[in-house]
Specification:
The protein has helices at 14-18, 53-67, 83-92, 166-176, 192-199, 211-242; strands at residues 8-11, 28-31, 72-76, 97-105, 114-115, 118-119, 125-131, 147-150, 182-185, 203-208. It is of the alpha/beta class.
Length: 249
């Protein structure tokens, strides 16, 4: 096993890469696995159809608990094709449950399925399950409720139709990860976790199976880091100016 290199995206199978990391390598974990929808309508470069989704969830969660000191936060939306696996997975880790946060969507995608005159119910929320080895009280960095209310993501990314909204990732990284700590995301996708870590001065490690998504994430994080550095420089210069120490030379 080894100590992971921070602020890096590893290309490969998440389980195989996780197994190379030392115990307690990270402060927290934040991730959103594919939902195993089986219809293949969200990803251009990934077939969302795992034969044993329950085993995948259990194996990844076990590894995250091993390599993480504090919170393991996993976002999964329960739906027709995965709800049994999700329920069994959650029960399997009952001894590690710390809490649950619900993301309520103000503009959810309407349910369009119709059968015998009945319509499918619109799925207007997603769960974020929080686990931890210590199984202590569920606490946050500041006073906050266990839900957030936002619109769904309006940004579009080529070949990836399930990119988490930045505002949602920001909420969790800001409130439920260790200040100045390191965050692991084994389903890194287009890098929203990394972007949130840049926003709140956390280190990140991502694992991504698809090289195209890894490249998209690297570009996204680079652009966000550059933007944050520019804002920081402007802010420092403004502070110097207001304090009368601005150098015009």
């Amino acid at each position: 096993m080894s100590i992971p290199q921070l602020n890096k995206i590893y290309l490969g199978d998440c389980l195989e890469v996780l197994k190379t990391f030392d115990n307690d390598s990270f402060d927290d974990a934040f991730t959103s696995p594919p939902y195993n929808r089986k219809v293949g309508d969200k990803y251009k470069y990934y077939k969302d159809n795992v034969s044993d989704y329950y085993k995948l969830l259990c194996d990844v969660t076990s590894e995250l608990l091993r390599v993480t000191k504090h919170n393991v936060i996993i976002n999964i939306q329960s739906m027709v094709d995965n709800k049994r696996d999700v329920a069994l997975w959650y029960a399997h880790f009952a001894d590690y449950i710390k809490g649950r946060v619900v993301w309520c969507k103000t503009n959810p995608q309407p349910g369009n399925n119709e059968r015998n005159g009945l319509r499918s119910v619109t799925n207007a929320f997603e769960d974020f399950y929080v686990f931890g080895k210590d199984n202590t009280d569920f606490v946050a960095n500041q006073r906050v409720a266990n839900y957030l209310l936002t619109p769904i993501n309006s940004k579009h990314f080529e070949g990836h139709g399930a990119v988490m909204k930045e505002e949602v990732a920001d909420f969790f990284i800001d409130n439920f990860t260790t200040r100045g700590g390191a965050v692991i995301d084994p389903f890194f996708g287009c890098g929203t976790t990394g972007v949130a870590c840049v926003h709140f001065k956390r280190s990140y490690v991502g694992i991504e199976l698809i090289e195209k998504y890894k490249e998209m994430a690297e570009n996204r994080i680079y652009n966000e880091t550059s933007k944050q550095s520019l804002f920081s420089s402007i802010s420092e210069n403004l502070d110097d100016y207001t304090q009368g120490s601005f150098d015009f030379s």
